[in-house]
Write a structure and sequence with these properties.
It is a single chain. This protein is mostly helical. It has one domain. The protein is built from six helices and no strands. The radius of gyration is 16 Å and the shape is globular.
């Protein structure tokens, strides 16, 4: 794995934050103006999944908190629930990281979709727990699926861009820019 200096991490955080703010603005302003009021892909989830899959740094939880906090500016979802979910998902990634394959677009799409389903299941559980009512669990969970499919489809190219932001070693990256 790459060893990251403080400069590398700060530069990666800056680039990723600018990208996240840009994507959140598109989701919050442009999509609704085009008539897509109910379509708001959670790009923060892709960012957290990338960090969990590709970076081994002791500050991963703080990176997740940073990006969840930026996301919370544009969302009614709480940063705390997203941060907790992101950390739990990244802990599960830690145990299966060596078995994950990002060599093709299809494998990236499948792996990202599996972990997004886990993410949205946990978020739905936390939301239902906070409401004290699990009767809407299925409805809330199913509401996340259209965006999750979209995010999975773009994940390969999104991860290639993030590889460049975070200077991920080409040997461990997702192939030779397929």
């Amino acid at each position: 794995m790459n060893k990251y200096t403080l400069k590398d991490i700060l530069l990666g955080v800056l680039k990723t934050s600018v990208l996240l703010i840009f994507l959140e603005l598109i989701s919050s302003v442009i999509f609704p103006s085009l008539g897509l009021q109910n379509f708001k892909p959670a790009f923060n989830v892709l960012i957290v999944l990338f960090l969990a899959f590709k970076l081994e740094t002791p500050g991963l939880a703080f990176l997740i908190l940073t990006f969840q906090y930026i996301h919370s500016i544009f969302s009614i979802e709480g940063w705390a629930a997203g941060t907790l979910t992101g950390i739990l998902i990244s802990l599960s990634v830690k145990y299966v990281r060596e078995m994950l394959n990002f060599s093709t677009a299809i494998s990236t799409i499948v792996v990202v979709q599996i972990f997004q389903l886990a993410w949205y299941f946990l978020i739905t559980f936390i939301i239902s727990l906070k409401m004290g009512d699990f009767s809407s669990f299925i409805t809330i969970f199913l509401g996340y699926l259209p965006e999750s499919f979209f995010l999975s489809i773009i994940s390969h190219h999104f991860f290639l861009l993030m590889d460049r932001f975070w200077y991920v070693d080409k040997k461990q990256s997702m192939g030779a820019f397929l």
